[in-house]
C-alpha cells in the first residue's frame, strides 16, 4: 500500500518512510510528523491530524528512541497514542550540558543544512568547518550561505575562501534583505524539503529566515559599532517556507558540540587525513616526528598551518565529548590517584 497523499508529501513523506510501513499497520495507524517539542508533548501534523500528543514511546531503550523535531511517527488513529518511531534519514544530536552528559536530540530528517556566515568581520572559517563536520556526520547536504553581500566591496573573495575548504563545496552569496537575491538558496526549499540553519550570532540568520518564510521574526537593525543584528529565536519547531518546504532554527542547532563525529572530521579534513596515512609512523602526532607528511606539506606551502590547528582542536573536542561518563570518571579517578600518590611521596621525602 502506498500512503502518499498530497498532504503527507508536502510534509516530507517519501518512499523511504513509506517502505517502513505495512498495509495492516496503516489500516489502524496514521503517519504524522513532529512539528514541535514542548516539555513532554509533541505537536504533530499529518493527513487530517493536527494535535498535541505525549512524547512517551513504548519500548524505548535509549535517548535516540524518543522523537524530536522532524521525526515521523505512526500513531493510533483513534487514541492518537504514539506507537512507533520510523527510521530517520538524518539526525543532529549533541551531548547535553551538565555532568550527566546525556544525549540530546536536536532535529531529524533534515535534507539540507544552510551554514550561514557573513561577508564582514563575522566571517569565520573555523565555524564553517565545524558546521561542515556536523553536516557530513549527519548525512545532510551542506550549503554555505554568505549574507550581507551588499555591504562588502568584494563578496566573491569571501566565497572563494570558503570554497577552498573542500572541493565541490556549495557556496552562495546573498543579500538576505532582497528576496530576489535568494534564488539559488530557494532552490533547496521546495515542497517537502526540510532545511536547517547554523551560524553564529550577528550573521543575519533571522533576516534570512524572515525573507524565506515571509514572517516577521523579532529582528532589529544592525548596530553600527559591530555590524551585528539583534534577534530572538523561539523554541524548536518546523516553520513553513514560502516555496513549500520546512525550516528549523533553534538555539540547540547553533550550540552543537562535536560528538561521535570522527567520520565527519575525516571527510571535511580529507587533505589532512590523506597526508596522515602517509606519515612514517602510524601514531604520528604531526609535530616534529621524522617522516611526517603533514609537516612536510606545511613546509612546502601546500597545507595551511592554521587549518592543521583547527583540525587538532576539533579532533580533541570530538574525543572529549564522545568519551562516556564512565570512562571520564575512571580517567579522573586515575588522575586523582596519581596526584595523591605524588603528594604522599613528597611528604615522605622520597623525592628531593
Automatic annotation (TrEMBL):
A GO biological process held by the record: ribosomal small subunit biogenesis
Top-rank EC class of the record's enzyme: hydrolase
Pfam family, any one: RsgA_GTPase
GO cellular component: cytoplasm
UniProt entry tagged with the keyword Transferase: no
Single GO term (MF): metal ion binding
Enzyme Commission number(s): 3.6.1.-
Superkingdom of the source species: Bacteria
Note describing how the cofactor binds: Binds 1 zinc ion per subunit.
Required cofactor(s): Zn(2+)
Gene3D superfamilies listed in its UniProt record: P-loop containing nucleotide triphosphate hydrolases (3.40.50.300), Probable gtpase engc, domain 3 (1.10.40.50)
CDD domains, per the entry: YjeQ_EngC
Compartments where located: Cytoplasm
Domain EngC GTPase: 108-254
InterPro entries: G_CP_dom (IPR030378), P-loop_NTPase (IPR027417), Ribosome_biogen_GTPase_RsgA (IPR004881), RsgA_GTPase_dom (IPR010914)
Binding site for Zn(2+): 279, 284, 286, 292
Coarse class of the protein's main subcellular location: cytoplasm
Binding site for GTP: 147-150, 199-207
Protein keywords: Cytoplasm, GTP-binding, Hydrolase, Metal-binding, Nucleotide-binding, Ribosome biogenesis, RNA-binding, rRNA-binding, Zinc
Family statement: Belongs to the TRAFAC class YlqF/YawG GTPase family. RsgA subfamily.
Reported function: One of several proteins that assist in the late maturation steps of the functional core of the 30S ribosomal subunit. Helps release RbfA from mature subunits. May play a role in the assembly of ribosomal proteins into the subunit. Circularly permuted GTPase that catalyzes slow GTP hydrolysis, GTPase activity is stimulated by the 30S ribosomal subunit.
HAMAP family referenced in this protein's UniProt entry, alphabetically: GTPase_RsgA (MF_01820)
NCBIfam families recorded: ribosome small subunit-dependent GTPase A
The protein's name in its UniProt record: Small ribosomal subunit biogenesis GTPase RsgA
Organism from which the protein derives: Hyphomonas adhaerens MHS-3
Taxonomic lineage: Bacteria, Pseudomonadati, Pseudomonadota, Alphaproteobacteria, Hyphomonadales
Name of the gene this protein is made from: rsgA
